[in-house]
Amino acid sequence: MKKLISLLLPxxxxxxxxxxxxxxxxxxxxxxxxxxxxNGKLQPxxxxxxxxxxxxxxxxxxxxxxxxxxxxxxxxxGQTDIMRFxxxxxxxxxxxSTAVSEYSPQYIAGNKFLAAVVVEKDSSQRIWxxxxxxxxxxxxxxxxxxxxxxxxxxxxTVFLFQIGDxxxxxxxxxxxxxxxxxxxxxxxxxxxxxxxxxxxxxxxxMNEDSTWSVKALNKTGMAEPGFQPVKLPAGTQDxxxxxxxxxxxxxxxxxxxxxxxxxxxWQEITDLRGIGFRKISRIAxxxxxxxxxxxxxxxx
Length: 300
Fold this sequence. Notes:
Blueprint: E1 4-10, E2 16-17, E3 27-38, E4 41-49, E5 55-62, E6 69-74, E7 80-86, E8 91-96, E9 101-107, E10 113-119, E11 125-131, E12 137-139, E13 147-152, E14 157-162, E15 168-173, E16 179-184, E17 186-194, E18 199-206, E19 212-217, E20 230-231, E21 240-241, E22 246-251, E23 254-259, E24 267-271, E25 279-285, E26 292-298
Parallel strand pairs: 3-5
Antiparallel strand pairs: 1-8, 2-4, 3-4, 3-26, 5-6, 6-7, 7-8, 9-10, 10-11, 11-12, 13-14, 14-15, 15-16, 17-18, 18-19, 19-20, 21-22, 22-23, 23-24, 25-26
């Protein structure tokens, strides 16, 4: 049984204005921005590098309410562990220190438990659950293997990217282990969206021109009627969705926005090249409480 540990690490602040005119990628850093909104449009404020070190730091995700940010971090021995960052105290806490690798950390609804994809000693990849206080852990869905990524829809329902030939987007019940195949050859990015009518799962699929489009499933894993796919900016497959129905994605160093209601095209929010961004990849936005935006800057 794996346990959570608590090692406090001070973050090195690199302050800047967001509105400035196979092997793991070693140049991946997690940045955090405090944000506001103006007429329903995201306005990033000052940003800083949460990880600020050489190596791989990636896959950010917020707790409910945005009080904590968790992400994957490669250690000196080549294994990846889960880090938790407190935006108020500006401290990173190492949550796991194991002989195996943890990826894709996410809080389960209610914030009581944290889930992660664990590459076990026999190379099995399954979802493990950790209690946020006691550290007690267990395999959550024992019979589902080859999991690459996860997205929790509610406290018992999770969408999984399952590696195979072909790869599959799977809807699983964490309580009874039942699953159903939903989509063939999905992308790695999945996000929930509370649309004006219902809650949906947004995911990506590659187009014939090698770009990616965002599509939607309902809570039963069926395609949502009437949802028109949205093509992401060229060169990216990652996105997030905010409380104002905006898709947020990167295009190189530029942060872009697309409103799912007005559908008036992609619009540039800001260009982060001035603070060292080369390519924005994974994105997370907090929900509830202070508005925070996490971006992964890939520099190599």
